[in-house]
Design goal:
The complex is a heterodimer of chains A (127) and B (372). Chain A is an alpha+beta fold and 127 residues long. The radius of gyration of chain A is 13 Å and the shape is globular. The longest helix of chain A is centred in the C-terminal third of the chain and has 8 residues. In chain A, a hairpin with a 3-residue loop joins strand 6 and strand 7. Chain A contains four helices and nine strands. Chain A has a single domain, classed as OB fold (Dihydrolipoamide Acetyltransferase, E2P), CATH 2.40.50.100. With 372 residues, chain B is α+β, with helices and mostly antiparallel strands. Chain B folds into two domains: 283 residues, Gyrase A, domain 2 (2-Layer Sandwich), CATH 3.30.1360.120; 88 residues, Elongation Factor Tu (Ef-tu), domain 3 (Beta Barrel). In chain B, the strands form five sheets. In chain B, strands 10-11-12-9-3-13 form a six-stranded mixed sheet. In chain B, strands 14-17-16-15-18-19 form a six-stranded antiparallel barrel. A five-stranded antiparallel sheet of chain B has the order 5-6-7-4-8, with helices on one face. In chain B, a hairpin with a 2-residue loop joins strand 20 and strand 21. The chains are: A alpha+beta (127), B alpha+beta (372). Chains A and B meet through strand 4 of A and loops of B.
Chain lengths: 127, 372
């Protein structure tokens, strides 16, 4: 199971990348996309929406199930990946390149408290 | 403790994602169920269906009796089977007209018919048949063929790839008309080859002694057939407008409310289990096809459907890779018409869907228009 060391993670299987400007890009992990199967539909939050930590803010649907995506930290949505809605299968092909949305975190240091790769790996037990 | 087919080790070695399917440990995909679906529509894919069960019904040479028994036991009429090898799709009904299972019956000889029943219902079906036989035809023998494994190879190139993989099979297998079967001797023992399937594509289903099924599977892989799992099997059969027992029909509904009226022969004078109940209860619901019109999700089983003529429920829903849109079967009021727009409750909103006549796709292509 692929878990890049340079990213942060949540126990709900989102990955988080801190960009140069301090915004956070968010996607779903290899574990999540494998469990979901081929994605066929993605719903992204509106730009400008203010999110609380752990708030459900996006939806992915695979052939077999729908799943919520949760904000890893509190913040405001500043960008969404418009490519995603026409080609959700890119998430399966390259889950760490397929970002869903970017947030400006309410607390600039908030991402530091998220799980690192090793801690995330422990949560999924890599079964 | 899940049951396993003889191909279990092969599936795991191929990286399959496994699921519990009716008590069986089965592959749901080998990586991408959508790619596997396209392989079947465009080339050749294969499914391990060894969890399904062949059941042989035999009489004695003097007094066949098998045909008589099946005339009574099955809702479709086995008198349609005149040529040896011919197959028939039928429901097995309870006296109250509800569905115990759907199955295929093959006429092989007057004293030998073979049935193929679903995995999750095999034990129930066999117990039901034994009970009926005890009452009506105790001289017949019923043999569940747990010694046989089965592979379904489907797609426009399926048959030619089977001939390549199964030496000596071409003369017999290439002569098979659709919905016909034949047995033949091979280096791997006697195999039973049927030109049937559950995908809407041409193809063959092969029953083979269980100890040899791994050899057959590997020969098919070498011949260019792509392993496909239950995920693709479901999107293919739904595109083809084929019912799934346990979802589209079960012991709470009649075949007439499940889109299976065409499989019930009510015209001939023969009596059969469930006939009186079907005649006494004309259907007030239908099984209709739906194509999602609004974007916003995927149609799925159990979603509520609101129509101008009353409410209904989706029985099977999925994303159709061939149409690139979500499709479903739904039990709706009988007077909802093809072309009507209905509203489906998907997660937290109502999405528009259009009523269509299945199948949605067959022989590699879409059959319904997506434009209203």
């Amino acid at each position: 199971m692929n878990i890049p060391a340079n990213l942060k993670y949540t126990s709900s299987h989102e990955w988080v990348r801190t960009e140069a400007d301090g915004t956070l890009s968010i996607g779903i992990t290899d574990h999540a996309q494998t469990a979901l199967g081929d994605l066929v539909y993605v719903e992204l939050p509106a730009i400008g929406r203010k999110l609380a930590a752990a708030e459900a803010c996006a939806v992915v649907e695979s052939v077999k199930a729908a799943s919520d995506i949760y904000a890893p930290v509190a913040g405001e949505v500043v960008a969404v990946n418009a490519d995603m809605t026409d080609a959700p299968e890119q998430v399966n092909k390259d889950p760490y390149a397929a970002w869903f949305f970017r947030i400006k975190p309410a607390d600039p240091a908030g991402a530091a408290k998220l799980l690192d790769a090793r801690a995330y790996e422990a949560t999924i037990g890599d079964a | 403790m899940l049951k396993q087919t003889p191909l279990n080790v092969i599936h795991r070695a191929a990286g399959a994602r496994m699921v519990d399917f009716g008590g069986w440990d089965m592959p749901v995909n080998y990586g991408s169920q959508i790619d596997e679906h396209h392989a079947v529509r465009n080339d050749a894919g294969m499914f391990d269906v060894s969890h399904m069960r062949g059941v042989d019904l035999r009489g004695d040479a003097r007094n066949g009796g098998v045909r008589d028994f099946l005339r009574y036991a099955l809702a479709n009429n086995v008198d349609k089977l005149k040529d040896p090898g011919k197959a028939l799709y039928s429901c097995l009904l309870k006296p109250d007209g509800t569905v115990i299972d759907d199955l295929i019956v093959y006429f092989l000889r007057e004293d030998f018919f073979r049935l193929v029943v679903n995995a999750g219902t095999a034990d129930k079906d066999i117990a039901w048949f034994r009970q009926l036989l005890a009452e009506r035809a105790p001289h017949l023998t019923l043999t569940p063929r747990t010694d046989l494994a089965m592979i379904a190879i489907q797609g426009p190139n399926a048959r030619t790839k089977v001939w390549r993989a199964l030496p000596g099979s071409e003369p017999v297998a290439s002569a098979l008309k659709p919905f016909t079967a034949a047995a033949m001797q091979t280096a791997w023992g006697e195999v039973f080859i049927a030109r049937t399937g559950y995908t809407g594509e041409d193809g063959l289903e092969i029953m083979i002694p269980a100890p040899r099924v791994v050899d057959l599977w590997q020969a098919l892989v070498a011949a260019g057939v792509r392993p496909a799992g239950l995920g693709a099997r479901d999107t293919l059969r739904l595109e083809a407008g084929m019912n799934l027992y346990g979802q589209d029909m079960d012991e709470t509904v009649s075949p007439l409310e499940s889109g299976l009226g065409w499989t019930v022969d009510l015209a001939s004078p023969r009596d059969f289990v469930g006939k009186a109940a079907l005649l006494a209860h004309p259907p007030s619901r239908q099984l209709a096809g739906l194509v999602l019109v609004d974007k916003g999700g995927v149609l799925r089983a159990h979603q509520a459907v609101h129509t101008g003529k009353g409410d209904g429920t989706i029985t099977s829903g999925t994303f159709s890779p061939t149409l690139n849109q979500s499709i479903a079967l739904a039990r709706l009021p009988a007077d909802v018409a093809v072309g009507d727009t209905v509203r489906v409750v998907v997660r937290d909103r109502e999405l528009a869907a259009r009523v269509v006549k299945p199948p949605f796709a067959r022989n590699g292509k879409a059959c319904v228009s997506l434009t209203p």
